[in-house]
Design a protein that fits this description.
The chain is an alpha+beta fold. The protein has helices at 7-24, 60-63, 70-78, 81-84, 121-133, 223-231, 264-268, 270-273, 291-301, 321-344, 350-353, 364-383, 386-424; strands at residues 39-49, 87-95, 107-108, 111-113, 142-147, 151-154, 161-172, 187-194, 204-210, 233-240, 243-248, 288-290, 317-318. The strands form 2 sheets. Strands 1, 2, 3, 4, 5, 6, 7, 8 and 11 form a 9-stranded mixed sheet that branches.
Length: 428
Amino acid sequence: MQPKAASDFSRSQELGQTLRNLNRSRYPYVQNPPGCKKRASVALIIRIRPTFPDTATFDTSACGLPVGSDQARLNAFFAQEWVQRGDPEVLFIKRSARKGDRWTSHIAFPGGGRDPEDKDDLAASIRETREEIGLDLEADHCLNVGNLSERIVTAWLGKTPLMVLCPFVFLQMRFDAEPLTLQPSEVHSAHWVSLRALTSPYLSNYVRSDVSGRFGRSGSDFIRPIARLLFGQVLIKGIDLIPTESIYCSSGADLLPSGPRASTFTSTVLPLLSSTKPSWEKPSQQLILWGLTLGIVSDFLRILPSCDPSKLWAWPTLSHLDYQFSIWLFTYAYRKQKLQEIESSYPASHTEAGGASGPGELDDTTFTTFQARSRKEVQDSALLEMLGGYYDRARTAVFLTLLLRIGAGSLLVAWVVRKVRKHRTPKL
C-alpha cells in the first residue's frame, strides 16, 4: 500500500474535531414566542463512505454503546484508517408531493413536529426519523453528537412566527447499516450527498417560490392572486444536489413519468411559449437544497474551518426588477456588514491551511478558538434572527417601491384622462 499523504486525513480529522467540539456543549433552548406553540425537530445524519480499496468496519467494542463516553466513541471511530481516508456524507430526504402542504416536494432532513408524548425535542427527532425513513437513531451504531442553533421560523415579509425548529446532529458509524424504509405519504426519496458537494460554488442555483404563500395565516384565496400580480416570485439561492446514493419509494405515485417522452419540438419550443411544465417534467426529479434546510446546512458548514458558506449564500429577493433594485439599495450596508462578520470568524491561518483550495489542518488552540467564535455567531444569528434585519429593510424597500408604482400609475392615468378629455372637448 502506498504511503498516506497528509491531505488524505485532513477532511475526516477536521470533521472529527468539529463533532467532538459540538458534543462538549449544547446550543441553548429557545422558548416559543407568544402565540406560537409549535416545535419541530430534524436530524442531520452524517456517515463516512469508504474510498477504494478500503472496507468499512464497525468495532462494537470500541465505538458501540457499551463504551459509554461519547468522546471515547468519537475518538475510536475517527482513529480508524478507513474513516480517515473516507468521504463524509449527509443524508437528505425529498418530501412527497402533497397538495396544500407548505413543504411539499422540498429537500429536507428527516423530522417533523413534536408530539405531546415526546419527552423533548431530541426524542421528537428520533421518533420522526424512525417513522419517515426507518432509521433507528438509538441503535448501537448511531450517536447523537449534539445540536445546532434552534431558530424561530417566521413567514417571509411578515412577522408571524410559525414554529421553533430544533436541528440535531447524528453520526451513523456503520456504512453497511440496514437499508432505509421510506414512508410513502411523507418521503418520496432519500439521498446521501458528499459534504464536498455542498461547498462547491459550481452547484449553486436559484429557486423561484410563490410569494403569495409566504404571508403566513393572512394568505387567502383573495389575497394570493393580488400578491402574485404585485410582487411576482421570490428568488432564493439553492444548491443542486449530486447524490452518491439514492433510495426511492417504489410505491410513490410520481416515481415514473405520467406522459410520453418529449419530442424535440415539445422539449425545446413549448417551454418558451408557456410557463406550465410538461407532464413528464416532475418536480420530484429536481434535487435543489434551499430554504430552511440550506440554512441548517450553512450553520453546520460554518463550524468547519475549511468551509466558507458565505460564498454559497445569496440574499432572497423578488423577481421584478424594480423590487430587486430597491431591495439591493436598502440592504447594501446591512449585507456588507454581515458578510464582514462572517469573514472575520475565520482564523488567519484558514487560507494558509487550505481555505478555498481544500481542507486545512488547524492546531488545537486555533481550532477551539474558531469553533467558539463560530458557535457564538451562529447562535446569535438564530436567536436574534440574523435575516430579521435584512427582511426589515427589504419590507421597507418593497413598500416604498409599491408606493412609487401607485404614484407612477396614478400620474399615467391622470395624463391619459387629460388627453382623452382634451381630445373630446370641441374647439370653439
